[in-house]
Hints:
By secondary structure, the chain is an all-alpha fold. The protein has one domain: Growth Hormone, Chain: A (Up-down Bundle), CATH 1.20.1250.20. Helices cover 72% and strands 2% of the residues. The chain is built from 14 helices and two strands, in the order ββαααααααααααααα. The chain has helices at residues 56-91, 95-123, 125-151, 157-174, 178-188, 195-220, 227-246, 270-298, 305-331, 335-355, 359-386, 393-420, 424-444, 446-449, and strands at 10-13, 30-33. A two-stranded antiparallel sheet has the order 1-2. Helix 1 (56-91) packs antiparallel against helix 7. The protein is globular. It starts with 9 loop residues before the first strand and ends in a 5-residue tail after the last helix. 57% of the residues are buried.
Amino acid sequence: MTDHSDDDAEEVSFPTGETGSDPLETTDLNFVQVPGGGFGQSLSLDQGSIHSSTTPEERKRGVVVLFLSLTIVSMGLSSIFNILPPLARVLGYAEWQTSAIFSVSAFFWVFASPYWGMKSDIWGRKTAILIGTGGYTVSTILFAFAAHAAEASIVSLSMGFFLMITARSIFGLFGSSTNPAANAYIADRTAPKERAAGLGLLAAAFGIGQILGPAMAGALSVFGLLVPIYFIAAMGGISGLLVWRYLPERTKPVQREGRVKLPLLDSRVLPFVIFGVALSLVQTIIGQTITYYFMDKLHIPPEVAPQYTFPAFTLMALGALFAQFVLIRNFGLKSRTLMRWGIGLAILTLIAFVIAPTFGALMFAMLLQGLAFGMARPGFSAAASLAVEAHEQGAVAGLLGGTGGTGAILSPFIVYFVYQGISPEATYLMGAVLLAVLFATLFWVPAFKVRRDH
């Protein structure tokens, strides 16, 4: 069991608001300095005087900037999930091709994410985050150009498909730098007992983005299905500017050199990697097929599908936000409790997808699905973070970031052989079975049974 809060870190609490106020003002995180990391070269608590390379106000501002930046990134990601399925049907692409566009990106994400996580230990978290936001912006612009060229018959559908895959590959190679660096940035600055809340804050940023992104896509899609994609590319550029200008990190990179690589087969993290791949596979399948499911089950024309599905994605994000801002922050739920409750509820939501007969029932199922993964994801990330040492935070964040891509690589096979080959309902039943296996491992795999966050 690893606990680096007492011997390795001095903890300073910087409350930024009262519970129940605006989410951006409730980041009551405990910032810490750990050997070789933290905020700067010195942080002393001598007679209440703090000497560091960044001020408390700057650190508070940094959390807000990171929150806003990740919200913008999430808006783009959720918009793509909302827009691409109806766009693909208008262009004439099959469901498996849509899934493949995401999967090729995910393939590169798997290998690039651990690399960027380790590089963030050397270059600094801010540099890695900037690489990620830059890759995200450039790849989104190229994706929009490729889709526009295919829609306007400037290139063939086959060439358009190839160009869209190429654009998403750039996202996988470079956009994958943001998440591990952001997670490590927060992990550097939180004590173990606050880790779930700190990482939950990042998950909340993604949750808000998942609310705003589909809503934006639904509103702008009335002007054309490609308009939201151009808009989110511009937002990605704004995200990078915010990080570059306002995110404080002044620890010299040399202080992070010499950190060992975290092996994939390390017994402390391997169970979490396997867990993360399986969890990501189920979550990715839902994300990639749910818009198709709405169109197929409710007979919605693709041109107007984003206007029907954005309320579903909004409710899903609200469920996740409720988990992170209410359950995690106010009830002090431990990481393993979050994992168990989250996985258990996710199983029920997948069954609800199958039996839901109406639009309203599907809306409620999406709300519960967001609540479920809003608990499971931060719990899983926090437990893995607490399983390793302070100097390994970037490496473990990179490995966990790669699990999301691995799940997305496998999803086209499920979409092709199950969603298209058998039935949409069979896809969600298969996901429920896989989550049931994960739920069982939480009680008999030793790594999941150890209490770390206390």
